[in-house]
Automatic annotation (TrEMBL):
Ranges of residues in domain Histidine kinase: 209-417
Species: Dyadobacter helix
Protein name: histidine kinase
The UniProt record lists the keyword Kinase: yes
Keywords (A to Z) from UniProt: Kinase, Membrane, Phosphoprotein, Transferase, Transmembrane, Transmembrane helix
């Protein structure tokens, strides 16, 4: 801001200084022209005549008789007169007035050269501009040095905050400074850092405890319900209600796992990163789902045009592809198709399926689902989007002619193109 405002102010000051000097010089020249006029009038009063052989030092005087009507007024003007020695037009300041000589009205023009005055104005202006430029540079240098010294503690604090990882045990420690305001700011940052670490540890413990404590009774409920289902002493009605309880408990278990997974992703508990080869990971996942794919008679077509590699959490990459392939199978038809394409910076999974009645972008919202089946909890695509946002990936869902298509791409490569 200083570099923008200062040149404007200095330029305005330079222009104002130029016009002030010019007005002062013009005032001085016009004052001397008036003196020459009084000398001229005194000469006429004494001799009552004028001869062009009469000279006044440093002045040129032109006396011309006037015939006809004229306006008797005195004016100052700028004019140019050819220099017969240098073949150039020189600037002059001219005083014009009318007077009677020998009973005949004459127009008198007294001129004074402005060459030296203009040279003086130019010299003063150049000197002023140089002085202002040097002043601007020196002020910039001074403020830069002063700012660097004053703001160095702030930049040190900023650097430490950028390196601070609240998921680790190391506390945020900021060194004291000589500036009271920065010390107060550092105290606030340290308290905030401690609060963030405390909240992170509390939330991490909660998700870990919830994951263990809730899954255990749910697993017990499922086991007991399975025993009841296999019992031969139950009639059809009791069997129906026990199966409903079984499906509800399984759905609650998946819902619990999904919400806890989203919480872990939000809290950056998947911090370990390495280069993940999506081509290799996809092929391994297809092998894991081979039985169910064959059971539903789904044909799989794979077309790789390069290895898609991305530095991210291997666990999140595994969950990402598991959800995508699982969705492509679950929401497919019997004898349907799955088509997987891969590029150096993207992967695309498409599958046949039922007509989509919901806005594709809303399927990434939590608990928003297209299927009404009891096996769906509406968190699969929400987990996919959360993983993509955390890992620097973009996700795009499209539907055309019974084909559901999901495209995963590297954001860094998209921005560089």
């Amino acid at each position: 801001m200083y570099l923008i405002v200062s040149p404007v102010i200095y330029l305005a000051a330079g222009i104002a200084f130029y016009w002030i000097v010019k007005m002062m010089i013009y005032e001085e020249v016009e004052s001397r022209l008036n003196v020459e006029r009084r000398d001229f009038e005194a000469y006429l009063k004494t001799h009552d005549t004028w001869s062009n052989s009469s000279y006044f030092v440093e002045n040129k005087i032109e006396v011309v008789p006037v015939f006809g009507q004229f306006v008797n007024r005195t004016i100052f003007t700028d004019t140019l007169i050819n220099n017969r020695y240098e073949d150039s037009a020189d600037p002059f300041r001219q005083l014009t007035f009318y007077t009677m000589i020998g009973g005949v009205p004459h127009k008198v023009s007294i001129r004074k050269s402005m060459i030296q005055s203009y040279k003086l104005i130019e010299a003063i202006s150049v000197a002023m501009m140089i002085f202002l430029a040097l002043l601007l540079l020196s002020m910039y240098w001074f403020h830069r040095k002063l700012s660097d010294k004053l703001w160095q503690p702030f930049y040190d604090t900023l650097s430490k905050i950028k390196q601070f990882d609240w998921t680790k045990e190391n506390k945020l420690a900021l060194p004291p400074t000589e500036i009271t305001e920065f010390n107060e700011l550092n105290d606030v940052f340290e308290k905030m850092g401690d609060k963030m670490q405390h909240d992170y540890r509390s939330l991490k413990e909660f998700t870990e405890n919830a994951s263990h404590e809730i899954q255990t009774p749910l697993a017990l409920i499922n086991a007991r319900v399975e025993q009841f289902i296999q019992s031969k002493d139950l009639d059809a009605e009791h069997t129906y209600w026990i199966e409903e309880i079984y499906h509800a408990s399984r759905r609650m278990s998946r819902l619990n796992q999904g919400l806890l997974l989203l919480a872990k992703i939000d809290n950056q508990q998947f911090s370990t990163e390495e280069i993940v080869d999506f081509k290799e990971l996809t092929e391994n996942k297809l092998n894991d789902f081979e039985d169910i794919i064959n059971h539903r008679n789904i044909s799989v077509e794979i077309n790789w045009m390069g290895h898609f590699r991305k530095k991210m959490s291997p666990a999140l990459a595994d969950i990402l592809l598991t959800n995508l392939i699982n969705n492509a199978i679950r929401h497919n038809h019997e004898h349907g198709k799955i088509h997987i394409q891969g590029w150096p910076h993207a992967i695309q999974i498409s599958n046949t399926g039922s007509e989509l009645k919901t806005d594709p972008t809303r399927l990434f919202e939590r608990f928003k689902k297209e299927s009404s089946g009891p096996e769906s909890v509406g968190l699969g695509l929400s987990i996919v989007r959360q993983i993509c946002d955390t890992s620097g990936l973009s996700v795009f869902y499209n539907y055309q002619n019974t084909i559901h298509l999901i495209n995963i791409a590297d954001k860094n490569e998209e921005n560089s193109q």
